Amino acid sequence: MIADVLTLSGVEQVKEQVGQELGVSEWLEISQERVDQFADATGDHQFIHVDVEKAKQTPFGGTIAHGFLTLALYPGLMADVVSYEGFAFALNYGLNRVRFPAPMPTGKRVRAQARLMAAEDINGGIQVTTEYTFECEGAEKPVCVAEALVRFYT
Asked: What are the DSSP calls for 103-141, one per residue?
């Protein structure tokens, strides 16, 4: 757990952070068990994710996490990085752009960094666009880069 969580209280503090890096998460190991559970939850049992022996025969040399599993980790990874207060509730609104530039090998660790890109007034609150960059420990390229939109209602 990261000691200093950035706490943003209310619309004005959020707007002050536009263009700023919010922080970097702790490392999280992507176990085969987690990948298998994601496969079961989504019905995506493509061998590259779940068949350890067959995946060894690919250029990756083993199983890799689903791209959408990596993307789905951002709320948990960011919980120790940034906290939003002074809002009644928040809702995921969508994604502007998602890319998976490199595979996320099973058994390796991932972390995410966040940069607040925009904060726009909406009816009843604010819409925040945050860029998340996920990196695999020791890898040159990120495993996921995504712009997520969240609506915070006052």
From this structure: --BTTSEEEEEEEEEEEEEETTEEEEEEEEEEEETT-SS
Cβ atoms of residues 82 and 74 within 8 Å: no
Q: Write the CB contacts of 2 (distance below 8 Å, at least 6 apart in sequence).
A: 23, 25, 26, 80, 81
List the structure tokens of 95: 């994604």
Backbone angles phi, psi at 48, to 5 degrees: -60, -20
Partners of 44 in the β-ladder: none
Summarised one tens digit per residue, pLDDT across range 74-94 is: 999 999 899 999 999 999 999
pLDDT tens-digit readout, 20-60: 999 999 999 999 999 999 999 999 999 999 999 999 999 99
